Amino acid sequence: MTARPPSRNSSDPDVPKRVAAAAPPDRKTAAPKPRAGASHGVRAARPLTDGDRERLLAGAHHDPHALLGAHEMRGGVELRVLRPFARSVTVLAKGLRAELHEDGGGFFSGLLPMRTAPEYQLLVAYDDGTDEGTETEIEVQDPYRFLPSLGDLDLHLIGEGRHEELWRALGAHPMVHQGVTGTRFTLWAPNARGVRVIGDFNYWDGTAHPMRSLGSTGVWELFVPGVGEGTLYKFDITRPDDSHTLRADPMARRAEVPPANASIVTESHHVWHDEEWMAGRGDRPSHEAPFSVYELHLPSWRPGLTYRQLAVQLPAYVKDLGFTHVEFMPVAEHPFGGSWGYQVTGFYAPTSRMGTPDDFRHLVDALHRAGIGVIVDWVPAHFPKDDWALAEFDGRPLYEHEDPARAAHPDWGTLEFDYGRKEVRNFLVANATYWCEEFHIDGLRVDAVASMLYLDYSREQGEWTPNAHGGRENLDAVGFLQEMNATVYRRCPGVVTIAEESTAWDGVTRATHHVGPGGFGGLGFGLKWNMGWMHDSLGYVSHEPVHRKFHHNEMTFSMVYAYSENYVLPISHDEVVHGKRSLVSKMPGDWWQQRANHRAYLGFMWAHPGKQLLFMGQEFAQGAEWSEGHGPDWWLLDPSYAAEADHRGVRHLVRDLNTVYGATPALWQRDTDPGGFAWVEGDAAEDNVFAFLRYDASGTPLLALSHFSPVVRHEYRLGVPDAVQAWTEVLNTDGAQYGGSDVLNPDPLKPESVPSHGRPASIQLTLPPLATVWLRPA
User: Fold this and answer.
1) Membrane-crossing residues (predicted)?
2) pTM for this prediction
């Protein structure tokens, strides 16, 4: 028999290499010797039925352990082995060396003269492929002598859809089982007729490694001795129609670098050093804390850097700018880089593009030690149709809804999860806690929540079916989001969940047990992106100043609903791609006016109730749209570039905005309390002026005013609280250091007993052109 050719990957504990010297240390290379007959006393075992034999060879048997391995019976111990391409198999045990009978098709068997099944090993001989006809022998453990390595409690919780640590039960786990080192492979595939594990350890031929079905849970399991970290693997699934499909592990915690897509056996060895951060991150609720977010796309922030290299540069950069958090666009494994991570195939695996899972842990650890929180975009709304991933995973709809009309996502050519199936909900809920617990993630920003909540999302009449109450709400998705949020907040103190939800759904950030007027409990998120504010305010500043008076309400309307949810004000990646232009390029006027508008807008944004989020590149007024192919235009900050000072000035402003913001509780402490805000001037449409007060918990105010006209207004009068003796300018976006015209209010401004804006006292100040000014009590 000809030896099987070697694979492209690492060593195999079962099948020998062509070159004996390349074999791992635990292999034994035998010298040429004549063939030996069966050992004395080994009788023939009962033959397999044709059906069992065929099903084993076809990978369609649900219980291979019932036929393979050692089984006590009358007359001895029956032992059967399936070793394709082997020339002989010898059983080794204490006091026993017995060669099994060859039954053809890779089967070897014998009836051993023993009363009880021994702890045994196999000595497997293969043709070494040379003309001399010599053999190579390897000594291996038999996977079919081991009891199931997954406990009854795990199976019960999986069956109930309530296994909150699902990643510890399913997937590939290196372990010591019955005193032997190996890897346990487990997979949920309830529609499969059979499952085999394949990988570089068996030359991608799973004939010898069929898995067993564990009851009615749909879970398949096999402990493979000798397999350890770094092993590549997939699952060979026999579908209900007897066809085969090769699939990556849905629970893989590490994957190959795309476009390769095999799963990799891994376990963590990272030692965390962020104890101080983890102990204190839950001391103050996110909506009552400073929360300023720098959003970035890790692969393109500094293209070519690994996680560990990013851990050197990113914390220092973000800390210098004063942001409290970073938000990573999705880091879960995805095949197409152009999706920016929003079409996920490996929900439990950080992308291998920049390193290993432990390398990613190292990056999070470094950010925490720098005092920076980490938010990750999480995408439970849909998944791509790649035929090696989740789509019709075991031959039938499994992760997606069984109704094709419900499964197909009309916008992205992807599939929507079946949130009504308990195992699918378990897969996603556990995934949320996985990122928080295994990687110390501080927040999950949940993508595309609106597409989950509505049955008619992007669908025309007749393309969707109402829910049981005749409505368009996706009740399964509502239940899933509530369960996810409740589980994360219960298990992971200090973590915040954030919804990207673009509609007026009631109660996105309301507690799940508080029922609203629509009859639903809250979804349970901690924060919600304010898409309305983003759309309206960007619309306003994109107009020429002379036209802005006709759009004044676009800047004030957000305060009508500002306290209906706990909001984040996002200027995200979505606003600076696909022809939308960068933030500074949205602004009208010449280059000076564009930058001035940009600075004034950021000042307005940082003072407005709600948390702030700014996408990379906008902190230094990048003029070009973002592209994942090359990332931010860092060359704009090169001192040799003529306009470098213009861009560096904007970045200097962002640093000062964050510095003053963090030191001023009035700007964040009462973001969700209407008592923390008061208009001073919200109707000055002709002047393009907005002025308001923010108050901290003790009542200390900050006065913020934004002037969106390119003129200087002298002696502009504003009503102020009469209890403040004087006001001093703490930030002015027109400062020369930021690239402005340096029209300032350098001296304290003392209130006069002149009524204005419904207040008994007022101040007069100079309004710089296209600028935001912050004043606080002197």
Assistant:
1) none
2) 0.92
